[in-house]
Specification:
The protein has about 160 residues and is mainly alpha-helical. Helix content is about 45%, strand content about 5%. The longest helix has 20 residues.
Length: about 160
């Protein structure tokens, strides 16, 4: 099958953060920046990576953004008193709350993580997380300026 340059450029247009020369260099092991000089297998691997989101590193910038967004959320969770060191079950339980994110931490994309960072900042500014316990009354009195989020009565995420 011949190289389909039209397909390549259509796929490249869908990824504005990607650089054509850098991609070609990466998929040819730094041999060339020319699409014409790529082998057919290299070209097909590059197109597949652009089309299906896998590949060697075309999405490195996206992964860097995801990593930074996850770090920002984990930092704020630590400020709230949630143990973030090897406590993925606790982090997931916290994030699964409908009032927080409604998803597991690993399933959150960059936009959801940014929204969660803002939400956690708001919680921090307003006094932190209130953990529900069995000794509290059903309707405790709260100051109007402090927002509390009730977490399940078995706070495994604090381990």
């Amino acid at each position: 099958m011949a190289k389909n340059f039209k397909l390549f450029y259509a796929l490249l247009k869908q990824h504005p953060e990607a650089d054509k020369d850098a991609l070609v260099m990466e998929f040819t092991d730094e041999r060339t920046t020319s699409l014409r000089e790529m082998s057919e297998a290299e070209f097909n691997a590059l197109c597949s990576a652009l089309q299906h989101g896998s590949g060697q590193g075309y999405n490195r910038a996206g992964m860097d953004r995801l990593k930074a967004a996850r770090s920002a959320v984990l930092l704020r969770l630590g400020r709230l008193g949630i143990n973030t060191v090897d406590n993925w079950n606790g982090i997931d339980q916290f994030c699964l709350s409908k009032k927080i994110a409604g998803k597991r931490f690993a399933q959150l994309d960059v936009d959801e993580l940014k929204a969660l960072t803002s939400k956690l900042e708001m919680i921090i500014r307003r006094g932190g997380v209130k953990v529900a316990s069995s000794t509290e009354s059903a309707a405790p009195s709260r100051p109007k300026a402090v927002a509390h989020i009730l977490i399940p009565t078995n706070p495994k995420y604090l381990n």
